[in-house]
Design a protein that fits this description.
This is Galectin. It holds the Pfam family Gal-bind_lectin. One of its GO terms (molecular function) is lactose binding. Keywords: Lectin. InterPro entries: ConA-like_dom_sf, Galectin-like, Galectin_CRD. This protein is mainly β and 135 residues long. The protein has a single domain (6-134), classed as Jelly Rolls. 0% of the residues lie in helices and 61% in strands. It contains no helices and 14 strands. It has strands at residues 6-7, 12-13, 17-24, 31-38, 41-52, 55-65, 68-69, 73-75, 85-92, 96-100, 106-110, 117-118, 120-125, 127-134. Strands 1, 4, 5, 6, 7, 8 and 13 form a seven-stranded antiparallel β-sheet that branches. A hairpin with a 2-residue loop joins strand 5 (41-52) and strand 6 (55-65). It starts with 5 loop residues before the first strand and ends with a strand. The protein binds the ligand CCCO[C@@H]1O[C@H](CO)[C@@H](O[C@@H]2O[C@H](CO)[C@H](O)[C@H](OCc3cn(Cc4ccccc4)nn3)[C@H]2O)[C@H](O)[C@H]1NC(C)=O. Residues 30-32, 45, 47, 53, 60, 62, 69, 72, 124-125 line the site of the ligand CCCO[C@@H]1O[C@H](CO)[C@@H](O[C@@H]2O[C@H](CO)[C@H](O)[C@H](OCc3cn(Cc4ccccc4)nn3)[C@H]2O)[C@H](O)[C@H]1NC(C)=O.
Length: 135
C-alpha cells in the first residue's frame, strides 16, 4: 500500500473550508486524513474504519500534540462505501473543527491544539486523494 499525499504550507485560516475529494478503495479496511501543523501536531486525525483495530464501520477521530495521541472520539454515522468516490469538508475555529460528510452528516471535534492555521494535510490507507479545494 503506497503512503498517501502530503500537503504543507497550506495556510488555511479559521473559517476557510478544506474540501478533500477522493476514492475509497474496493475492499477498504481503513483510511486516514490528518490535518494540523505538521505530522507530530495533528489537530484532526480522521480515521474511518471499515474493519480495523476491532472497529467496524466506525469513524475514529483523535489529535496528536507534540507526538502524543489524545483521547479518541468515535462517531455513530458512517456514510462511506468501499469502492466509491467521496468528498469531505473540514472547517475550523478556535474551539472546534466541523467535519461535513456525505448524506448531510456533520460532526464537531474539539480544536485541542488551539490551532489557528492549518498548514499540513496528509492521507493514508485505502484512500486516494483526487483533489483538494481550499476556499
Ligand atoms: C483497548 C486497548 C487498545 O486500544 C486500541 O489501541 C490502538 C493502538 O493505539 C488504537 O489504534 C490507533 O488509533 C490511533 C488514533 O487514536 C490511530 O488511528 C492509529 O493509527 C495511526 C496511523 C496508521 N496509519 C497508516 C495507515 C492508516 C490506515 C490504513 C493503513 C495504514 N496512519 N495513521 C491506530 O493504530 C485503537 O484505536 C485503540 N482502540 C480503542 C477502542 O481504544
Amino acid at each position: 500500500m503506497s503512503r498517501g499525499i502530503v500537503c504543507t504550507n497550506m495556510g488555511v485560516k479559521a473559517g476557510k473550508r478544506i474540501g478533500v475529494k477522493g476514492e475509497i478503495a474496493a475492499g477498504a479496511k481503513s483510511f486516514v486524513l490528518n490535518l494540523g501543523k505538521d505530522q507530530a501536531n495533528v489537530v484532526l486525525h480522521f480515521n474511518p474504519r471499515f474493519d480495523a483495530h476491532g472497529d467496524v464501520r466506525t469513524i475514529v477521530c483523535n489529535s496528536m500534540d507534540k507526538g502524543e495521541w489524545g483521547a479518541e472520539q468515535r462517531e455513530s454515522a458512517f456514510p462511506f462505501q468501499e469502492g466509491t468516490n467521496v468528498e469531505i469538508f473540514i472547517t475550523h475555529d478556535p474551539s472546534n473543527l466541523t467535519i461535513a460528510l456525505p448524506n448531510n452528516h456533520q460532526f464537531k471535534f474539539p480544536n485541542r491544539l488551539g490551532l489557528q492555521v492549518i498548514d499540513f494535510l496528509n492521507a493514508d490507507g485505502d484512500f486516494t486523494i483526487k483533489s483538494i479545494q481550499l476556499e
